[in-house]
Amino acid sequence: MIKGEVEELNVLIAGVGGQGNLLSSEIIATAAVKSGFKVRVADVFGAAQRGGSVLSHIRIGEKVFSPVIPEEKTNVLLGFEPVECLRALRLLSPSCIAIINTRPIYPRDVTIGEFKYPSVKEIIDVLEKLVGKVLHRDFIVIAEEAGDPRTLNVVMVGALAALNTLPIKRETFLEAVKEVVPPRTKETNVKAFEMGCRETAKMMEERL
Amino acid sequence: MNLFEKIACGGLGEKLLLLGNEAIARGLIEAGVIVATTYPGTPSSEIGNTLAVTSSKYGKPRYFEFSTNEKVAFEVAASAAVAGLRSCVFMKHVGLNVAADPLMSSAYIGTNAGFTVITADDPGCWSSQNEQDNRYYAYLANLPMLEPSNSQEAKDMIRDAFIISEKLELPVIFRVTTRVSHTRGKVILGKIETQKPKKFVKNPGRYVPIPAVARKRRLVLIDKINKAREISEQTNLNRVEGSGDIGIITSGVSYNYAMEAIAKINIEASILKLGMTYPLPENKIKNFIKDKKQVIIIEELEPLIENTIRSIAQRNNVKVKINGKHDNFFPLSGEFSTDIVVDGIKKALNMETNKQMKIKQAEKTPFRPPIFCPGCPHMASYHIVKRVLSPRTIWASDIGCYTLAINKPFQMADILYCMGSSIGAAMGMSKADKVAVAFIGDSTFFHSGLPELVNAVYNKHNVLVVVLDNGTTAMTGHQPHPGTGRTGMGEKTKVILPEMFAEALGIPYEVTDPYNIALSVKALRRLLKRKGEGPALIVFRRSCALIRPVEQVYIINDKCTGCFACINSLGCPALRKRNGNAIILSNLCRGCGVCSQVCPFEAIESVNDLETEKKNFLNFTQ
């Protein structure tokens, strides 16, 4: 964990509209504010309610002004969807840690057969060449175990907490989860957060 | 305490993480605004979504409405301010085009209590048909303009806007952009003020700009804008930060990129941050630029500040190198970023730019455009119309989710201008002997479709008007409108339906449910038979799939032959090809059953046991 005054730490969430990116970015930013940091969050999305690419930029630190992360400055990538991680490549730092959910959501051009979706292996290979560390698995399975596949977004926040890259305590993340998610989903989401944390910690141990 | 309650009631010094738009809402509450009006439009939508809750639950502001369009919203708020109540109207950038007529007159009439006009511009066209620079409206109307750079300023500067407005008795334009509206940041709350209503005294010699009055008021306006220039000279909203013989002049969101760019390039620069961008402070600018080695102007979209500064330098005989958009150092289109600004500053300073994209991989990824939601009734409506009418028909589209019919499998959007333009465009097309159909949503119909329909009847235009009525303003986040029977403050009100106008105008019409394809096809055929000279109207009525509970889902049985009629005619995201057959992703299925009516082989059937099916869907999520 990075101690002392934070100059600049950038977390990027790459996903698809409807996956809950905006809720995740709000949780992470709330946890950062609770920990006393200056934070800016930009959710970059288009016109429609659902289905388009969404990038959430979370920027923590005293030297941060721009709401969006400059090229090659992302410290942690939370990939909710594999192909969306490729779209974000230019923003990733060479030492970036990427946590990736490997379950794809096919874009329309793929479902109607006009475009081939790259294999998940290809996507991981590209990322492994370009960034510092890649942790990947089907995180939807964890969300399902937590009780609802829609909690993928909170599972991924748990994964981020387990990394210990941000100077934010797990308990603070948990407080933020409880505060931000809709009250009736609190129990499932808390479970999702804890499972995301635990499973990611396990993955990190296995790599060592 | 939820966020809305904190925005409405949070005390002095409390810290909240707020979206730019939420910060603006809080700013309006702190300024004691009594009347707020809007027509929803992204990137301004969340201001209204916030005030709808804070006004109905906590009485802050005392009155809020979703008006039928921006012109109406403007007139309601402007006149409430003339009547003595602090008021505000807000909208997206193109909304101000709709309200431009009263905007121009309001500059002449002026205001009594404070009146702020918030415009949310959209550089990069994230959710708009253009990226027009609404700062021009301040120049055009001669109205003072403020531009915040972040959430905290978005809240704080609302107070400044009202103070300036009341001091000059002029409306003030408050201009934000997508990246300010849609960025979350820490906001320290201020005190909530209560404003006593001001007295309204009848004064037709001021408030009724007949030519004789308008000529006098034009002179008053010129005098006021000169006074506004003095405010611009003195206010701390226009201030110098840092030091160095390179001068950077910037405003709004660009200020953030400039700050990071200077740190990144590691140069000593002095920054003139402009928070009040019309009128610009001539003396302050003259004094800032005169002893600089070089001045670089950083602003998104049009070179407005740059033009003024070049003019100030020329008139004051200041010989300094000024760089900006006229040198092509900064792009005219799209949003800025730290990288773009770094690149521009380096070019201006003759430094080497090493801009080469290390990674080209992103270009190989499949494009992911926004799509119709699973079960969206618009898919069914377009399918029905396509089945009945010739493919040579001209499809005039409008602003709403249904513009997505431009994409496959429909490809039913041939022309579009703006809100409400479909009927007008169809009228024009029909003059060239084309069969023309106008697709218009319910909220858009009330916004500006009505006068167009009247024109179609009056001038006997031979067009078919298709109203896609999903019972909400869906694209901007489900705001109520005149057809919903509910006001912005959550009160019950009369339900106004599009077919009432067809009835009143005496034109043939039909109302049908697009989820029933056979009946809808019949209804449309029947209407086309009845249609004589002049327009006819059909309403496809079915509520937005996102706000309707799921009661059943559909599955594909073993009768599926893999003809993919379902996918090819609807393109519903819940339908997929797998192993030569179609499948339905039951976690996405909204149970509309439209695909089962399209299937020629009775291969799609409903399942009511949702719980069992939900367990099965895990196998299906690809």
Characterization of this structure:
The complex is a heterodimer of chains A (208) and B (622). Chain A is of the alpha/beta class. Helices cover 42% and strands 21% of the residues of chain A. Chain A starts with 8 loop residues before the first strand and ends with a helix. The model of chain A has no long low-confidence stretch (mean pLDDT 91). In chain B, the strands form 6 sheets. Chain B has a 7-stranded mixed beta sheet. Chain B folds into 4 domains: 3-234, Thiamin diphosphate (ThDP)-binding fold, Pyr/PP domains (Rossmann fold); 238-359, Rossmann fold (3-Layer(aba) Sandwich); 377-541, Rossmann fold (3-Layer(aba) Sandwich), CATH 3.40.50.970; 554-606, Alpha-Beta Plaits (2-Layer Sandwich), CATH 3.30.70. Chain B is of the alpha/beta class. In chain B, helix 16 (377-388) packs across helix 20. Chains A and B meet through helix 1, strand 2, helix 2 and helix 3 of A and strand 8, helix 12, helix 15 and strand 21 of B.
Secondary structure: elements and pairs:
The complex is a heterodimer of chains A (208) and B (622).
Chain A (H helix, E strand, L loop, with lengths): L8 E8 L4 H14 L4 E6 L8 E8 L13 E6 L2 H6 L4 E10 L6 H4 L8 H11 L2 E5 L1 H8 L5 H12 L6 H11 L5 H22 L1
Parallel strand pairs in A: 1-4, 4-5, 5-6
Antiparallel strand pairs in A: 1-3, 2-3
Chain B lengths: L2 H7 L5 E5 H11 L4 E4 L6 H14 L4 E4 L3 H13 L4 E6 H6 L1 H10 L5 E7 L13 H7 L3 E2 L4 H18 L3 E6 H4 L1 E6 L15 H4 L3 H24 L3 E4 L4 E6 L2 H12 L3 E6 L1 E3 L3 H9 L3 E5 L5 H12 L5 E3 L14 H11 L28 H12 L5 E3 L24 H11 L4 E6 H17 L4 E7 L28 H8 L3 E4 L4 H14 L5 E6 L11 E4 L8 H6 L4 E4 L2 E4 L9 H5 L5 E4 L2 H11 L2
Parallel strand pairs in B: 2-3, 2-4, 4-5, 5-7, 6-7, 10-11, 10-13, 13-14, 15-16, 16-17, 17-19, 18-19
Antiparallel strand pairs in B: 1-8, 6-12, 9-11, 20-23, 21-22
Helix pairs in contact in B: 1-3, 2-3, 2-8, 4-6, 12-15, 16-20, 17-18
